[in-house]
Amino acid sequence: MEAMEGFWDDSDNASIIQKEKSVLNEIVQTYSLLKELYDEFEVLVEFATSDDDEDSATEAIECYSKFLEQFEAAELKVLLSDEVDPNNAIVSINAGAGGTESCDWALMLLRMVNRWAESKGFKVQTLSVHEGDSAGIKSATVTISGNYAFGYLKSETGVHRLVRISPFDSSARRHTSFASIFVSPEIDDNIEIDIEDKDLRIDVYRSGGAGGQSVNTTDSAVRMTHLPTNTVVTCQNERSQLQNKIQAMKVLRSRLYDLEMEKRKAKDKETEAGKQEIGWGAQIRSYVLHPYKLVKDVRTGFESGNADKVLDGDLDGFMDSYLRWSVSSKIESENK
C-alpha cells in the first residue's frame, strides 16, 4: 500500500494507516509465535516419550514455559478489544488538596507513568506542565504514543493515595496525599468529533517556567475552552502558537470523545468513578511507604510489596489484573 501513488501525500492519513498496520503485524506475530512454539513442543514431547530422550524432555519443559508466556501476551491482546484501545494515550495528572505534599506526589506519578512508557519503547511528549509553588507539579498533560498505549494506561484513571513520612515535614510525621490521573484516547480523524468555531474560546499567553521565568518572549502558549461542556485544555511546550493550537485541539477532541463515552456508560449505569473528588474514599490505588511498603489496587485486589519498583514504572501486573477485572465486571453486569 505504501507504494501506491499519492499514498504519502496525505501524511496524517498515511500515519494512521502505518499505525494500523503496525498493530495488525504485532497481532499476527504474536499468534505466529504461539503456533511455532506449540508445534515445537509437540515434536519434543514425541521425541521424549518415544525415545526416552531426557534432553528433549528438558527442552520441552523450556518450550512450554515460553509458550505460556506468549499465551498470556496473546490473552492480553484479546482483553484489549475496545475500539480505541490501540490508540495513543493522553494522560493528565492533577494534584489534590494538600499543597506541597500533593504536588510532589503528582510529580512522582508523572515519573511513574513516563518510566512505564519508556520501558515499553513508547514515545512521551509533554504538552503542558504547571509547577507547584515550592515543589512538584500542580498538573501536567503528556501524550504517550505506542501500540495499545490507551488500552494499557486506562487502568490508571482515578485517584491515587500515598502514605509516607513527609520529606517536607521537619518533625518527620506521616502524611497522606492524593493526586489523580485521567487517561483518554488520542482520537484520529476517522472518528468524527464535531467542534464548531462558535463553541471555542482560544486564549494565548506566554509560557512560564519554574520561578516565573519565561520560556519564550512570545504569546505561544494556548488555552482552549469548549464552551458547551466547559472543557479546558492547555498546551505550552511547543515552540510556536500554531503547534500548541494543534496539540491542544488533539487533547480537546480526546476529552470530548471521552465525555461522550461516559454519557453512554451512564445510561447503562456503568459510569466509571475516574473523576471523583480527589480525596478520602475515592482512591483506586493506595501506595503505602510507611510503616511498611505496599501498593494495592482497591478495585482488583492486586498488590505488590515492592513499592519502589512500582513507582519506577513496574505497572504490568496492575494493568493485567485491571483488564481481567474490567472484562469480568462487564460480563457480570450484562448477565444481571
Automatic annotation (TrEMBL):
<comment type="similarity">
    <text>Belongs to the prokaryotic/mitochondrial release factor family.</text>
</comment>
<dbReference type="InterPro" id="IPR000352">
    <property type="entry name" value="Pep_chain_release_fac_I"/>
</dbReference>
<dbReference type="Pfam" id="PF03462">
    <property type="entry name" value="PCRF"/>
</dbReference>
<keyword id="KW-0488">Methylation</keyword>
<protein>
    <recommendedName>
        <fullName>Peptide chain release factor 2</fullName>
    </recommendedName>
</protein>
<dbReference type="Pfam" id="PF00472">
    <property type="entry name" value="RF-1"/>
</dbReference>
<feature type="domain" description="Prokaryotic-type class I peptide chain release factors">
    <location>
        <begin position="206"/>
        <end position="222"/>
    </location>
</feature>
<dbReference type="InterPro" id="IPR045853">
    <property type="entry name" value="Pep_chain_release_fac_I_sf"/>
</dbReference>
<dbReference type="InterPro" id="IPR004374">
    <property type="entry name" value="PrfB"/>
</dbReference>
<dbReference type="GO" id="GO:0005737">
    <property type="term" value="C:cytoplasm"/>
</dbReference>
<keyword id="KW-0963">Cytoplasm</keyword>
<feature type="modified residue" description="N5-methylglutamine">
    <location>
        <position position="213"/>
    </location>
</feature>
<comment type="function">
    <text>Peptide chain release factor 2 directs the termination of translation in response to the peptide chain termination codons UGA and UAA.</text>
</comment>
<keyword id="KW-0648">Protein biosynthesis</keyword>
<dbReference type="GO" id="GO:0016149">
    <property type="term" value="F:translation release factor activity, codon specific"/>
</dbReference>
<dbReference type="InterPro" id="IPR005139">
    <property type="entry name" value="PCRF"/>
</dbReference>
